[in-house]
Amino acid sequence: MFEIFGLPSQALFGQLLLGLINGSFYALLSLGLAVIFGMLNIINFSHGAQYMMGAFTAYLLLQYVGLGYWASLVVAPIVVGATGIIIERAFLQHLRKLDPLYGLLLTFGLALIIEGLFRNTYGSSGLPYQVPATLQGGRNLGFMFLPNYRAWVIVFSLVVCLATWYAIERTRLGSYLRAATENPVLVRAFGINVPRMITLTYGFGVGLAALAGVMAAPIYNVSPQMGSDLIIVVFAVVVIGGMGSIMGAIVTGFALGLVEGLTKVFFPEASNTVIFVIMAIVLLVRPAGLFGRAV
Amino acid sequence: MNIAVRVAVLTAALVCAGTIAARAQDRTVKIGVLSDMSSLFSENSGPGSLVAAKLAVEDFNPAANGLKVEIVSADHQNKADIGANIARQWFDVDHVDAIVDMATSSVALAVNELAREKNRVLLVSAAATSDLTGGKCSPNTIHWSYDTWMLAHGTGKALVAAGGDTWFFITADYAFGQALERDTTAVILANGGKVVGSVRHPINVNDFSSFLLQAQASKAKVVGLANAGGDTVNAIKQSAEFGLTKNGQQLAGLLVFIADVHALGLEAAQGLVLTASWYWDMTDGNRAFTKRWRAERPGRFPTMVHAGVYSSVIHYLKTVAALKGDADGRTVIAKMKEMPTDDPLFGKGVVRADGRKVHDAYLFQVKTPQESKYPGDYYKLRATIPAAEAFRPLKDGGCPLVTN
After folding, report:
1. Which residues of chain B neighbour A125 with C-beta distances below 8 Å?
2. pLDDT (mean) for B194-198
3. What residues contact residue B28 under an 8 Å CB cut-off, 6+ apart?
4. Does residue B4 have a pLDDT over 70?
């Protein structure tokens, strides 16, 4: 066994893997944000609240309907995505021609309201949710003990991220969507219902947040403020990756998870600051973000 | 309306308002509940403390004692500067006489200095740092429910005695976590154990896996969690996932509230050993209080912080009534130390010269899902720590009020 920076290599590999797992949450969440911003030009500040709603929906489905984790993985994103569609129809569509700041303020306000409602109903200390029976336990990798559930998280979120990227960048539907962002009038002239497409895209982005919420429920405390704790970091990830860049969001999400994981080993006190330090540096050197195009 | 009439009306209005205010002022006691109303500690203190304070006022019956009591509350968001600003405004502008609850050690230490400077009353039930009755003790402060010394000795001593003689700490990186780690380390060393390592994490983090991995690598027999609220819940939840206890390590939650156990579920929390100074299901008095409290906070159970707020407000109001009128903060606190305490939740007790309220503490173990018979049936009593041993001996705290 050899040492890296005075740390046994085994411990370091373990920490790197954990960083990747946390990164997969960042990636999933920032992916949803990037989709919404890239396609709709809305800075969706209620993303954290929608992630929290995903986790709560999973809890409520189990508690009152008897649906377990696997069913929640499908049902919760649909339910929360539907609330997203309502929000888009009721509020966001009226803001489309205004400065993106209005959307930011609206979604920020919505996030506060949603969080307040959940806090009022369920309290702030959280609710229990177990790891699904099939994924309990773990395996010894030699350098660390890897819980099966975490392995599942990393694989599944990678699949979801890449599938989303493929759907938007490589399919016909994705090309309609990107064209509608560039020139909605022209796309409409080809007989495509642009407003409906935009509504569905917002619903999809919100669904992604809810999906991340369901995946977080067994390992993080399911509480109303779970989203607001995370959303600021996720915004930093999106800024570093470049606003609206799908691949940028995915790659930066995983990379920053790694950086944060390493910080937790060498200087744990700074682990919740390091991402913002990187954000400041990136903004100084490349204001459009690592993968963004200059605007 | 001409100008003369306007001036006359305005003057009359102001004079009336002035007399009413003056009349109200000399009979009104104003109590401020300063707490975390919305974030990770709000379930253990927060809105529940406001309810407890209101119940205390109700039971005290101010009208019969010639007093009028008003309660205000605010959210300090766990930030020392915000907390100090609110307290300053309460003292200077709103004429608040006493601040109760006072969650979060870092904020409590800041307000502690402010209450001393402004000569008001601070009754701490929620913050834990034992410095409040140690080096930072003040003639304006009483520390009520529990402190880090009590937690460290209750849980630390019991676990070392049971063979857990090597420890690794996962500590929240602020005043409370550091005080708890320090106090527990002292207990471990004094009882022949040793601390093999520790890691400091920022408050309110989501993911503990990295710290848990470090704890696993340390091979310590006991992993001590010197944190609170949502942080403790996340750490315990994830340690189960990483098989910490299955691999022979024991987890010690140094500050676990009943709300945390509720959040974890018995499946994840069972077997956890913890120290507390109050449990809702111990006496008929506690159960009666809980029933009234739950009418305002359905689905939840009161913690030792809520009980402490109730008990401290009762004792404070009794003292103010006994002093008959406008005594300053220091005089009230001195009288509170002089008078024995007596209330349905903590029974009879005393407040020491250093500001420490003294009562029994209990070592509990969280029940298994099979043992729990009804909602909130979470703890079984393992040992009672008598009042005389539950808190740091008066002479060891280094409080200047004691030596002088």
Report:
1. 40, 42-44, 229-230, 233, 257, 259-260, 262-263
2. 95
3. B67, B68, B69, B70
4. no
| pLDDT, greater one: B344 or B19 | B344
> In chain A, which residues have pLDDT < 50?
1
**Looking at the partner chain, which of A127, A149, A269 has a beta carbon nearest the beta carbon of B241?**
A149
Which residue of B44, B45, B207 is the best one to mutate when testing the A interface, meaning the one whose CB has the most A CBs within 10 A? B207
pTM attached to this predicted model: 0.81
Q: In this structure, are residues B119 and B330 in contact, taking their beta carbons and an 8 Å threshold?
A: yes
pLDDT single digits (tens) B230-283? 899 999 989 988 888 888 898 899 999 998 998 898 988 888 989 999 999 999
What DSSP designation does B133 have?
G
- Which of B42, B213, B214 minimises the CB distance to A124? B42
pLDDT tens sequence across A170-189: 999 889 888 888 888 888 89
Where does residue B209 rank: exposed (0-12), middle (13-18), buried (19+ CB within 10 A)?
A: buried
For chain B, give the mean pLDDT.
90
β pairing state of B28-35 and B98-101? parallel
**A257 near A29, Cβ under 8 Å?**
no
- With H, G, I as helix, E, B as strand and everything else as coil, classify residue B80: helix
Domain boundaries, chain A: 38-163+192-224, 225-295
Q: Which of A15, A119, A272 sits opposite B38 (nearest CB)?
A: A119
Residues composing chain A: 295
Q: Do A147 and B242 touch (CB under 8 A)?
A: yes
Q: Are B188 and B156 in contact (CB under 8 A)?
A: yes
Q: How confident is the model at residue B404 (pLDDT cuts 50, 70, 90)?
A: low
In chain A, which ranges are continuous DSSP H helix?
Answer: 9-40, 47-60, 69-90, 100-122, 148-170, 172-182, 184-189, 194-216, 226-241, 246-266, 274-285
Report whether B187 contacts B165 (CB < 8 A). Answer: no
User: ipTM score of the complex?
Assistant: 0.80
Q: Could you give the CA distance from residue A285 to residue A280 in angstroms, rounded to a whole number?
A: 9
What type of residue sits at position A260? E
pLDDT digits (tens, 9 = 90+) for B37-51: 888 788 899 999 999
Q: Which domains does chain B have, with CATH numbers?
A: 27-146+282-358 (3.40.50.2300), 149-276+361-389 (3.40.50.2300)
Q: Which of A75, A114, A14 lies closest to A210, judged by CA?
A: A75
pLDDT digits (tens, 9 = 90+) for A90-130: 999 898 888 888 999 999 999 999 999 998 888 777 888 98
Query: By percentage, how much of chain B surpasses pLDDT 90?
Result: 74
Whole-angstrom distance, CA of residue B330 vs CA of residue B141: 9
Question: A268 and B199: CB-CB below 8 Å?
Answer: yes
Q: Which residue has the tokens 């250093």?
A: B354
What's the pLDDT band for B17 if we cut at 50, 70, 90?
A: very low
Amino acid at B297: R
> Tokens representing B95?
């004429």
